[in-house]
């Protein structure tokens, strides 16, 4: 059984999408639509912008979404998922590729999400940190004891859990986690505490937009970040999406559940190979490939 997986923020690179634009009429059509929907020339930023340009949340999220969704669409009849999943932002790419959301609605939600997250980051001094070579339970227990807001944010693979919260609380957690046996605790170059309670203002804003958007049943079950379980019911998909910004991304658990449910091949769709790298650390016996056009 084939599981198609879609990357989140961090997969961007300079010049991303230019090859798609040059090779395919469909890509040119989608980029033109995107420029209209967003109200700025995202194609130009993706093709010619610097790494710093691409790092802005309001650019990064729609850029990765566009690359992934266009690639899935160009796969045509070869795109036959038995399962779908996306890491954080990638969940929206998976929903559009899986026909639960239209391209236009998906892009509008992604841009609303990016803007809401950017605004939320400006309210509190906050950050994220990658904790390496420590079990999840220890990280969770240490976070609970720290004064201030700090919580698990991304369960990426065994031995790699990202925490998120107020900057000073995250720094205190880093020290405590190193004492508890972590090999490294690395502050990430991000502008905010994504997937933490500090994203509540963004969650509320995005929830309104999700409520006004029409969702269909996807062509294959989608394993959502919040629950790490298969879902096909549009109302439940919306409810889980509503919780996504303030809840951790359960990526390790999602991949393990897909394998338990019969996935034998994982195909990463979109820029980079971040998720294939995580897959090898979750279960090196499962086949992982990159979607090729």
Label this structure with key terms:
4-stranded antiparallel sheet, 4-stranded parallel sheet, Alpha-Beta Plaits, 293 residues, alpha/beta
Secondary-structure map:
Blueprint: E1 2-6, H1 18-23, H2 25-38, H3 42-48, H4 51-55, H5 57-74, E2 83-86, H6 90-97, H7 103-121, E3 126-132, H8 136-145, E4 150-157, E5 160-166, H9 167-179, E6 184-187, H10 200-211, E7 222-223, E8 230-231, H11 234-243, H12 251-260, E9 265-268, H13 274-282, E10 287-290
Parallel strand pairs: 1-2, 1-9, 9-10
Antiparallel strand pairs: 3-5, 3-6, 4-5, 7-8
3D structure, described in words:
The chain folds into two domains: 2-121 and 197-290, Malonyl-Coenzyme A Acyl Carrier Protein, domain 2, CATH 3.40.366; 126-187, Malonyl-CoA ACP transacylase, ACP-binding (Alpha-Beta Plaits), CATH 3.30.70.250. Helix content is 48%, strand content 16%. The radius of gyration is 18 Å and the shape is globular. The longest helix is centred in the middle third of the chain and has 19 residues, at 103-121. Strand 7 (222-223) and strand 8 (230-231) form a beta hairpin. Strands 2-1-9-10 form a four-stranded parallel β-sheet. The chain has 13 helices and ten strands. The chain has helices spanning 18-23, 25-38, 42-48, 51-55, 57-74, 90-97, 103-121, 136-145, 167-179, 200-211, 234-243, 251-260, 274-282, and strands at residues 2-6, 83-86, 126-132, 150-157, 160-166, 184-187, 222-223, 230-231, 265-268, 287-290. It is an alpha/beta fold.
